[in-house]
Design goal:
This protein is of the alpha+beta class. An eight-stranded antiparallel β-barrel has the order 1-2-3-4-5-6-7-8. The chain has one domain: Quinohemoprotein amine dehydrogenase alpha subunit, domain 2 (Lipocalin, Beta Barrel). The chain is about 20% helix and about 50% strand.
Length: about 140
Amino acid sequence: MKKVICLIAIALMVVSVALAAPKMKITAKDLPGLKGTWEGIVSFGEFEAATSPMKLEILNDAAPLKAKGTITNIPQQVANQFSVPSGQNVFENDGGVITSQGTIFWASPQGTGFFEISKGENKIHFWYFFKGIKGDATLKKKK
């Protein structure tokens, strides 16, 4: 019985390592490939059932990076928590820098939050912290 449990545990570890998406570091030479429009669904942290379509536009290909994000259909309860209007919201930031961890980081000029991206295989991983709430998204490049 112990051998079967050990074999199952080893098999599960091998499968989890094989399926884990490798996190690729972003370098300056990657910036031209990141320029463009990325789309996906963003989550709103503690509002686990609440998600909205999101578009992130990376507007240039040299640091500091300029970004424009559009989140549509923000639910009223989320809007109240973030102190933003429900429906569509657009945010822009022109201070994106490459971090030592190989991500791109944008800080809010008001000091109320940040957002960051990392590169995956044909997608980017987006996460944010804003007014005490954190959330994330996986975005694919629009062709």
